[in-house]
Write a structure and sequence with these properties.
The protein has 14 helices and five strands. Helix content is 56%, strand content 7%. It is globular, with a radius of gyration of 21 Å. It has two domains: 239 residues, 3-Layer(aba) Sandwich (Rossmann fold), CATH 3.40.50.620; 82 residues, Tyrosyl-Transfer RNA Synthetase (Orthogonal Bundle). By secondary structure, it is mainly alpha-helical. The site of tryptophan has 14 residues, from strand 1, helix 8 and strand 4.
Length: 356
């Protein structure tokens, strides 16, 4: 889901993200990170370079990382599909395969954490219908459905997201730009709860968004890479499928290959992807291609990507063959999330004087 935002808040968030990046490196133990994905299909290389590797990095620095499978968000705009169990376990496999370590990080599904969901009720009392209506994603959805068929769950989903974040006292939330308004609403809810119920001793932290520094990757058709557009290279794709996807990627008709994201978005995107795989710059890859044209660029990229993904794919195959282990990891994560959220709910009840 993407929304046009005025540039100013995004730039401010980018600057703040750079400061936060530094702060986490200096004192990782001050941070509890929460972020997650909807279980709506296989994760792709856009996720890998845009968010997954960053989560692993935060984990390895020593921050407490919670990875949320947002299964209730999938019923905001579609019927609960019977593919949900497979998609959910598939996400767990993706996470573990890229290096999320269940001994250090917590993977959980929010439908399994009762106390988290219960926080939605007091939180809904802290925002007005007008405020939620101004959320760009909600507004867009309202427009797209002509204002008639949007579910009330879709309407309240930014508030539900505040429950995700605040139930575990996360203070750092790695997100894409389109999620910044949700985070602003989370901060508003935290502030209002503290003002109304906490008598000068704030209970909820106001979480910060952490924007990815990785540039946005395009799909093989030159559009934004997306699970739903069928233009993505899935992590779980085979080496042959990857080669085929890249062979079919859009390029342009110029023979020389150069990195010019503004003028040559498709070619530049392929260069960028190869560069991310090899930890080099897109300009270096362009030099390697020389005057070999798009065909050679595609060969180089296919090799770079298959090489980079090889260990991840091998690990993922092993994991996928053992669903009971994946279920076990998720059950343990759910338990840990339940413990944290139950404590939060108990505190919230005490602060709200709803203890009888
Ligand atoms: N809305 C996010 C997405 O579509 C997923 C998500 C749900 C999330 N709850 C969250 C992300 C809390 C960060 C924090 O990708």
């Amino acid at each position: 889901m993407s929304s046009a935002l005025a540039p100013a808040p995004v730039e401010a968030a980018q600057r703040r993200s750079l400061e936060l990046d530094q702060a986490v490196r200096e004192d990782p133990h001050r941070y509890r990170v929460l972020t997650g994905d909807r279980p709506t299909g296989r994760l792709h290389v856009g996720h890998l370079f845009g968010s997954l590797l960053n989560r692993v990095c935060l984990q390895d620095l020593g921050a407490a990382v919670m990875v949320l499978i947002a299964d209730y968000q999938t019923i905001t705009d579609r019927d609960a599909p019977d593919s949900l169990p497979a998609d959910t376990l598939g996400l767990v496999a993706d996470y573990l395969a890229v290096g999320i370590d269940p001994a250090r990080s917590t993977i959980f599904a929010h439908s399994q954490v009762e106390a988290l969901n219960q926080l939605l009720i007091p939180f809904l009392s802290l925002v007005s219908v007008a405020e939620v209506s101004r959320n760009p994603t909600v507004k867009e959805e309202f427009g797209a459905t002509g204002g008639t068929s949007m579910s009330a769950l879709m309407f309240s989903y930014p508030v539900h997201q505040a429950a995700d974040i605040l139930s575990c006292h996360a203070n750092l939330v790695p997100v894409g730009k389109d999620q910044l308004p949700h985070l602003e609403l989370t901060r508003t809810i935290a502030r209002r709860f503290n003002d109304r119920y906490c008598d000068g001793h704030p209970y909820f932290p106001a979480p910060d968004g952490l924007l990815s520094v990785a540039p946005l990757l395009l799909g093989v058709d030159g559009q934004k890479m997306s699970k739903s557009r069928r233009n993505a290279i899935p992590l779980a794709a085979s080496a042959d499928e990857t080669a085929q996807l890249i062979r079919g990627a859009r390029t342009d008709s110029l023979r020389g290959i150069s990195y010019e994201p503004e003028h040559r978005p498709e070619v530049s995107n392929l260069l960028l992807l190869a560069a991310l795989c090899q930890g080099r710059t897109p300009q270096e890859i362009a030099q390697d291609v020389g005057d070999g044209g798009a065909a050679r660029l595609k060969l180089i990229l296919t090799e770079a990507l298959n090489e980079r993904l090889r260990p991840i794919r091998a690990r993922r195959r092993e994991l996928a063959a053992d669903p009971s282990y994946l279920r076990h990891v998720l059950a343990e994560g759910n338990d840990r999330a339940r413990q944290i959220a139950s404590q939060t709910l108990a505190d919230v009840r005490a602060l709200m004087h709803t203890v009888y």
